[in-house]
Amino acid sequence: MSMSLEVKNLSLQFGNSYALKDMSFQLNENKIYGLIGRNGAGKTSLLSLFASFREPTSGTVKIAGENPFENARIMQQVNFIFNKDYKDESDSLKNYLESISRYRPNFDMDYANHLVEKFKLQMNKPIKEFSKGMQSAVNVTIGLASRTPITIFDEAYNGMDAPTREMFYQQLLEDQLEHPRMMILSTHLVSEMEHLFDEVLFLNKGELILHEEYETLVTKGTSITGAAETVDAFVQAKKQLNTKQLGNTKSVMIYGEISEAERKAAQANGLELGPISLQDLFIHLTEGEE
Ligand SMILES: Nc1ncnc2c1ncn2[C@@H]1O[C@H](COP(=O)(O)OP(=O)(O)OP(=O)(O)O)[C@@H](O)[C@H]1O
To answer: Looking at the keywords, is Disulfide bond present (predicted)?
Structure first.
């Protein structure tokens, strides 16, 4: 079964307000997608439609060509990892992992044990007694060890400290090499996660404002620095994201292709061209009036 995920003219309303507006895109198997957006942009709403937690108001989601809603065969192919509330979970981690392994056909218990050791979790302790960061490590262990063809991590790092997050990223990349699957990672932690992404989707106020390969995206963002008039002349026909000026020196972030001829002309005119980070692109492409 080919694990593509196709979204067409998708909208989701809560009452009169749109959480998602007329979105269309396609995701393909075995790639890692970064789903990036500010608070309230619609990330969880979108992911909950993939996980069949609700139905769209209009438009369609198709997974492997089928509507996933109340479709057990398709839902077995999707694993939605979110910040679950474990306050009533008195099962030990060991029992909990065993019960999950029964309905996740690719679940690898040896690998789960390896992750439990890496994350320094106690197998015999009730999950409700774990700290917040440890509960997130439990979620990540389940998400990785289940090896589900579509694995979704919705801000799965919640409460994890920096070394634990780093371990998560490293395990994810290593396991993806051996057992490729489609992964969707929603996050605000753009700078520390960007190295994971094959493709990036930016959501802003319920709209998909950009879907691009990571490598292409970062080459499209450029900072232009130099004498104010020369910078102004160069950027006037470009999409400008942010401007800073100190005396007569100006620096403008732009987004878009720059031809080799333009690059040479800019340098001949004394302008400096530099890369801008995905974090900067995120901040400046999604800012604006609230
Ligand atoms: N159950 C709900 N009822 C009403 N409105 C909702 C509901 N769930 C989400 N919304 C609204 O939909 C919009 C998108 O919310 P969503 O949780 O999808 O954003 P998000 O990008 O995941 O945000 P965050 O990064 O803060 O988790 C917000 O305006 C939110 O208030």
So the answer is: no
The response to whether residue 202 sits with its C-beta less than 6 Å from ligand 1 reads: no
Structural contact between residues 116 and 101, judged by C-beta atoms closer than 8 angstroms: no
The ligand 1 atom at the shortest distance from the C-alpha of residue 48 is: 18
- Whether domain 217-285 has CATH 3.30.70.2020: yes
- What is the pTM (predicted TM-score) of this model? 0.92
Q: Please work out whether the CB of residue 250 comes within 6 Å of at least one atom of ligand 1.
A: no
Which of 36, 44, 188, 190, when mutated, tests ligand 1's pocket best, judged by the most ligand atoms within 8 Å of its CB? Answer: 44
Burial class (CB in 10 A: 0-12, 13-18, 19+), 22: middle
The residues spanned by each domain of the chain are 5-205, 217-285
Hunting for tokens 């979970």 — which residue is that?
89
- Taking only Cα atoms into account, the Rg of the chain, rounded to an integer number of angstroms, comes to 22
- Going from the Cα of 52 to the center of ligand 1, the distance in angstroms, rounded, reads 16
The tens digit of pLDDT for each residue in 22-33 reads 999 999 999 999
CATH 3.40.50.300 fits 5-205, yes or no: yes
Chain centroid offset of residue 174 CA: 18
